[in-house]
Design goal:
Helices cover 16% and strands 25% of the residues. The chain has 259 residues and is α+β, with helices and mostly antiparallel strands.
Amino acid sequence: MSYHTYNPGVRVGNWQEDVCLEEEKLKDFLEKKQRGELMTDRIYSLRHHILQKVELTSPAEDGYVHFGDIICLYNVGTRSMASANMSDIKMHNAQQLEGPCPLTSSKIFEPCVRNAFQIVSADKIDRTGEVLHFEQHFCLSTLPGVGGQLKLYSDRATFIKHAKYSRLQDATLSSESSYQCEWKLMVLEPKQRLIMEGMPVTIDQRMLINHCKSNQCLASLPEYTHRTSFGREFEVVAHTHYDPHKIARDINHWNFVYA
């Protein structure tokens, strides 16, 4: 009778070194897991923090929008909230939102770090508490801390720089402060814009968020959706979409959401 001298339990070659290496890998894995240094833990931690609830500014007694207000941006056309959309790859080592960070619009309506923005002055002067007027330049910034204080940024579309899916002028969140980060509010009716210039912006008013450099309005595109870490969301660009009457369509209409 013949016997098989080899089976999977037989140790051959440098088996001792292999066993020690596996033990070291396991030990290193358990230590990193205990300290929360695994990539999956870091991604989960940042995702958890940017989904933390944020207290929005309560409406002022005068009914106007003010510098320093913390608000959400609601798009009328797609019925969604403008949100920061940081990729999983960048979340590996990040402790906060980092630019350049794409902007999408999401069906998550709970105010949180990724969809809350602060209205700040474009001229680097502290105007906290001052009323915001139509056609006045301002910036939209994410919150300090985990939010990273990134500003809403856009620039003219080129052959190599454009929105990923629609190839229109992109809208992103950036750490730089420049003229590309300046925006202004306009009323929907073109014939009323000259009259309303310099008038205070009321809280419950639909408006256009116009990019000062390119004269394009912020839009959420219902025909361009893509899967993100937070679900399927709409692409946000800076492009004015007109109807046959030369009026901006509802995908360009935005509301400031308060507490």
